[in-house]
Write a structure and sequence with these properties.
Blueprint (H helix, E strand, L loop, with lengths): L2 H9 L3 H26 L3 H31 L2 H4 L5 H64 L2 H12 L4 H18 L3 E6 L4 E6 L9 H10 L3 E7 L5 E13 L2 E13 L4 H6 L9 E8 L2 E4 L14 E3 L6 H8 L3 E6 L5 E8 L5 E8 H66 L3 E10 L2 E10 L1 H7 L9 H4 L3 H4 L1 H13 L3 E7 L4 E8 L5 E8 L1 H22 L4 E6 L2 E5 L1 H6 L22 H12 L5 E9 L5 E13 L2 E10 L1 H35 L6 H15 L4 H13 L9 H4 L7 H7 L2 H9 L8 H7 L20 H16 L10 H10 L7 H12 L8
Helix pairs in contact: 2-3, 2-5, 3-5, 3-11, 5-11, 6-7, 20-21, 20-26, 20-28, 21-25, 24-25, 25-26, 26-27
């Protein structure tokens, strides 16, 4: 159909037909967008917002379509649209309008999984945080009770109060202890009860009667262990937790419980506020503490949206959508959607509280989770609507004018393109950094004779220093050029004749400069040269060549062997390297495999080290190997290799020296040191023997103590030097007994107090004997401190804790185990198990706990036996 046909068709559209077309488009819009919205959006709130946007968009678009129909009917717009029909444009507008709800659908589809993932991750973090906080709080309370249970002095005082209830001094001391514990740890009350559950003392703000804890108290006293009573509501309506702590004494009647402590704390004082605090701003975020009671879920804390529910609200365990019920049925951690106790859709994360039957459930309303995404869809849709309206209006205005201005615009564009192209090439010519010369060749008898500079750029003058050369002969501009550089005229003539471009470098003697030159033929008998001044580069290359020559001279004359290993072969060795392995020239080794120079037993070592460096596992390596000379002789070679790059590829560059003489000297020194150590130990053994000769009943005691101490030190991971110090210290730890009369040492009865006082001076005597001897270990201090104890009850100086040398603490444990297990003149040995029991009871008070643990592990688990 031609333009006149289209015009008549548009003019035949009556108002009724236009209204009918408007209704058809409106119906299509309403039905189509409604169906798309129903398929993509399930959220009622979000659907309502999109319906609002859709209505506004409907009015704007249909109004625009109506305007187009009326305008095209009443104007000569047909002339301006002869290149394209109207209906495809209307269809395009309709499709653009549909893009807005489609954009909302895409945003929801893409971002909903991400929003859910982030929400679940945040809820998991909150649940984990709250569970850990509750666990830490319970651990702290358990620690309080363990401290009280282990307080021997408190147990003794409680035992005295049970026997003498009217003893005010004992009551006052216990009262101070209970008040201190209650105030420091915010307990509601602490009660002291006897074994019959009678109240002896109480620490509380108000008078408190003894609670009904008979069953729990009896279990705690019978088992001598701390028991806990879970959250419960008392008669007054307060929610409590209690711990029952047995107080145990050790006396002639054995170990027995004499009384118990009841520690009570209200949940509202710490644990409920801790749980109910949400770490971020949230309108619906809530933490639940729940446990299972029969077939119900019991809510332990007050709820955010329903007050007074702690330990009163219970819901069935069978509820399939209640997050708390899902958590308790899962018996683990996880996340879940669901409906909370209000019947509101929520998302939740849950986590068990270790050591309890409790579960932490962190939840927020799903509507709060989706609110940011809904707002995002709303704003994106509004922005898209505004952009579409603006674009539509702009397109309408531009469309009405574009046909009238098209030919003028195309003509102006063509002229502008020509001008831009000319400016571009002129700018390129004027600003290029390389020199440019357009020249015409001159011939005589068909051979090149000279050439004329027709045009040059500013860079030509800068690079050559020549001014005003345009229109002049090269022989005139550069006198003597053809004599000093005859090859230039030949190359230019050859390019003009063949038409093939060439590139070369040349030193121009008349300018005393180096140039890199490219030449080509743009038209017959003409040529263009593009060149750059490379004098500095040439000078640098010469400096590098001179430097390389000096470096090569240094490498070739080095007293150390130098090699480069690449691709499994030696690609370079210096003369000294060849000399070390007995080769006359380096050429005998270039291209050889390194394995040729390595003894059989070390080939694997060398190959592995080369591989590690080439693969980048180790940048530098120092090692030695047995090398093989050309004549078959063996040498000890020391290598320092480094990963490097040779000719652009990975390689190993290294230094190698013959260290055979050095190794021989080191071996002689090692043997000499070993001989000295052996002689030294013999001297120590002589000193030990002298002591044992005066006390034959303890013969071998010092040696056995040394062996046990060495075993303990090894178990503790001490290095070889300290282990040897333990051995020597054990040999001489009792050397001070030389001052004690032999008749006291061998007396078949327990020594008197005077005799024992004399025996107790042997650590001081041992120190005085050894202190001036030069040992590489603290031997004198071991002898001086081996009877000291961690709590200061030892002798001779009453040292405590870290004031006692570690080696002395080890020797002390070894001394006790050996002495108690062995016979003495005044008693038979009590046996190994009683000796181990002694150090176990004294662990942490008399003896170092780590040393005791290592000793017990040796004897009880690793099968270590007492030395003979």
């Amino acid at each position: 159909m031609d333009a006149s046909g289209k015009s008549s068709l548009l003019r035949r559209l009556t108002p009724a037909s236009i209204a009918l077309l408007y209704m058809v488009l409106a119906a299509l819009w309403i039905v189509g967008t409604g169906a798309l919205l129903g398929m993509t959006v399930a959220d009622v709130l979000l659907s309502g917002r999109i319906e609002l946007i859709k209505g506004v968009l409907f009015v704007c678009v249909t109004g625009l379509l109506l305007y187009l129909l009326l305008t095209m009917r009443e104007t000569n717009a047909v002339e301006e649209t002869t290149d394209s029909p109207l209906w495809p444009k209307l269809a395009l507008v309709f499709a653009l309008v549909l893009a807005v709800p489609l954009l909302g659908f895409v945003i929801i589809s893409l971002y909903t999984p991400q929003v859910e993932h982030e929400a679940y991750a945040n809820l998991e973090a909150i649940a984990r945080l709250k569970a850990e906080q509750v666990e830490n709080w319970l651990d702290e309370r358990q620690g309080d009770t363990e401290i009280l249970a282990g307080d021997e002095r408190l147990a003794e005082l409680a035992g005295q109060l049970v026997k003498r209830p009217q003893d005010e001094d004992v009551s006052r001391r216990i009262q101070r202890r209970l008040d201190l514990a209650r105030n420091n740890h915010r307990y509601t009350r602490i009660l002291l009860l006897d074994t019959e559950e009678r109240l002896l003392l109480e620490s509380a703000d108000d008078f408190v009667a003894a609670p009904a804890l008979s069953g729990l108290l009896r279990q705690a006293l019978a088992g001598k262990r701390v028991l806990r009573r879970d959250l419960h509501r008392d008669n007054a309506g307060d929610i409590h937790m209690e711990w029952v702590v047995p107080l145990v004494v050790q006396d002639a009647q054995g170990e027995r419980a004499v009384a118990g402590l009841e520690l009570s704390i209200t949940a509202h004082s710490f644990i409920f506020p801790l749980i109910q605090t949400w770490p971020t701003a949230s309108a619906s975020g809530e933490i639940l503490l729940v446990r299972r009671e029969g077939d119900s879920v019991m809510f332990l804390n007050d709820l955010r949206h329903r007050g007074g529910t702690a330990l009163t609200l219970a819901q069935p365990m069978t509820d399939s959508v209640l997050p708390a019920a899902i958590a308790l049925r899962s018996a683990g951690s996880g996340t879940t959607p669901g409906m909370d106790y209000r019947g509101v859709p929520v998302v939740a994360a849950y986590r068990p509280v270790a050591g309890t039957e409790w579960y932490i459930v962190a939840k927020i309303d799903r509507s709060e989770m989706m609110a940011p995404l809904q707002n995002l869809v709303l704003w994106v849709s509004l922005i898209a609507l505004a952009a579409l309206a603006a674009v539509s209006l702009g397109a309408l205005l531009v469309w009405r004018q574009q046909r009238r201005a098209y030919r003028l615009e195309m003509r102006e564009r063509s002229m502008a393109a020509i001008e831009r192209s000319e400016r571009h090439f002129r700018s390129l010519f004027e600003n290029m950094l390389e020199g440019y010369a357009f020249c015409r060749m001159l011939r005589r008898d068909g051979e090149p004779e000279d050439f004329v500079y027709l045009e040059v750029n500013p860079a030509f003058e800068i690079l050559t220093g020549l001014k005003g050369v345009a229109g002049r002969l090269a022989g005139e501009v550069l006198p003597g050029l053809h004599e000093s550089n005859p090859e230039l005229l030949k190359i230019f003539g050859r390019v003009v004749r063949s038409g093939l471009p060439e590139r070369f470098e040349s030193y121009v003697g008349t300018l005393q400069e180096w140039f890199s030159i490219s030449v080509y033929c743009p038209e017959p008998e003409h040529f263009v040269t593009i060149f750059d001044n490379i004098t500095e580069r040439k000078r640098t290359e010469q400096v590098l060549a001179d430097s390389e020559q000096r470096f090569r001279s240094l490498v070739e004359q080095s007293i150390a062997g130098i090699y480069i290993f690449q691709d499994g072969l030696l690609v370079y060795v210096n003369p000294r390297f060849a000399e070390i392995f007995g080769y006359a020239t380096v050429n005998e080794l270039i291209g050889a495999e390194p394995a040729l120079l390595v003894a059989e037993q070390d080939k694997g070592l060398v190959a592995e080290n080369m591989r590690r460096q080439l693969d980048g596992e180790a940048q530098y390596l120092d090692y030695s190997f047995a090398g093989v000379r050309k004549d078959g002789g063996l040498i000890e070679a020391g290598v320092h290799g480094a990963r490097a790059t040779h000719r652009g590829r990975p390689a190993v560059i290294g230094l190698l020296q013959d260290i055979s003489e050095k190794k021989h000297a080191e071996e002689q020194i090692r043997q000499y040191v070993a001989q000295l150590e052996k002689s030294f130990l013999h001297t120590v053994e002589v000193a030990t023997t002298l002591t044992e000769m005066r006390d034959p009943y303890t013969a071998g005691h010092e040696k056995r103590v040394a062996q046990i101490a060495v075993a303990i030190g090894t178990e503790l991971g001490l290095d070889a030097h300290r282990i040897e110090g333990l051995r020597v210290g054990g040999y001489v730890h009792d050397i001070g007994k030389i001052i004690v009369p032999a008749e006291i040492l061998s007396k078949p009865a327990r020594p008197s107090s005077t005799e024992y006082s004399l025996i107790k001076e042997h650590p001081q005597a041992g120190y005085d004997i050894l202190k001036n001897a030069t040992f590489p270990w603290p031997v004198a201090d071991i002898a001086y401190q081996h009877h000291e104890r961690l709590d200061g009850s030892g002798y001779p100086r009453g040292l405590k804790g870290d004031e006692i040398l570690l080696e002395a603490r080890i020797t002390a444990v070894a001394d006790v185990v050996e002495a108690m297990s062995s016979n003495r003149p005044y008693r038979p040995g009590v046996g190994l198990e009683q000796a181990l029991g002694e150090i176990e009871r004294g662990s942490g008070t008399h003896y170092d706990s780590e040393v005791v643990a290592a000793c017990l592990l040796l004897f009880r688990e690793k099968g270590y036996r007492l030395p003979l």
